[in-house]
Write a structure and sequence with these properties.
266 residues, alpha/beta, 4-stranded antiparallel beta sheet, 12 strands, 36% helix
Length: 266
């Protein structure tokens, strides 16, 4: 059974606008790192909110890590899914970084030793050591994003959803983020990266799902995701810069720097 599955999911917002056309959205994801890409309005954020029960489908089945989302409360889903919003200010409300990161596992009533372990690991992984007592809103956008990510990781969830995680990140922060998501994927976690940053997709996400007008147009290896120019145009996305460079000079398809250099040397 896939780690995440959606079967014929239909959802509409008030006013009757259908997000996913008939017969509904069907998608299966395994553990590891998957990018979810597509134009604005394709249904990406709606999908992630359906996964954690913040939105409920009109019909269809959604299962996440063995849980039937329709039969599970949002609070119970929070034990399994760590979620970060695109705008960190939508979820940061405590007075210190440590209090913010501690909030989730404490509310979930994790044993104190588990809380301390998870919080310490999340703060270290997100480069926030030494800033535990700083007010989150005294930090810049990049670091506020990291506080939100640390908050999602502190409960040690088996599923992590990151909405536009590279927003505001400089090169070293992007590298830290790449290493983080790849490590989480190697540990068997399900990591879903919702992003418009195709360079990061090529660098960090072995699997890619392309949504266009509420339909899955591609789901498979990222190495093959950027070969269909008509699909990319329809989905409103551009390939990674390194992919465009490889095509311009006649190399085979590459989606990240390592692939490009290996192909160039050959």
């Amino acid at each position: 059974m896939p780690d995440i599955s959606l079967e014929k999911v239909l959802f509409s917002y008030p006013g009757g606008v259908e997000v996913y056309p008939e017969p509904g959205l069907t998608l299966a994801l395994e553990s590891g790192v998957t990018a979810l890409v597509g134009e604005n309005g394709a249904g990406k954020t709606t999908l992630t909110k359906l996964l954690i029960g913040l939105l409920r489908p009109r019909s269809g089945d959604i299962n996440v890590a063995g849980l039937d989302v329709s039969k599970t409360t949002v609070a119970a889903m929070a034990k399994t899914v760590g979620y970060t919003f695109q705008n960190p200010d939508d979820q940061l409300f405590e007075r210190t970084v440590k209090a913010e990161v501690t909030f989730g596992p404490r509310v979930l009533k994790r044993p104190p030793a588990d809380v301390e372990r998870g919080v310490a690991a999340a703060i270290k992984a997100c480069g926030l050591a030494g800033k535990e007592d700083v007010h989150p809103h005294d930090l810049g956008l990049s670091e506020r994003k990291w506080v939100a990510i640390a908050s999602a990781l502190a409960s040690e969830p088996s599923v992590v959803v990151l909405d536009e995680p590279t927003l505001g990140q400089d090169y070293p922060s992007r590298q830290r983020l790449r290493e983080l998501v790849m490590r989480l994927g190697s540990e068997g976690k399900i990591v879903l990266v919702v992003t418009h940053d195709m360079d990061f997709v090529g660098e960090a996400c072995p699997t890619t799902v392309v949504l266009s007008h509420g339909a899955v147009r591609y789901a498979g290896p990222t190495s093959n995701a950027f070969g269909d120019r008509a699909l990319l145009k329809e989905a409103g996305i551009e390939p990674p810069h390194v992919t465009e460079l490889a095509q311009a000079i006649g190399l085979r398809q590459c989606v990240n720097e390592a692939e490009f250099l290996a192909t160039w040397r050959r």
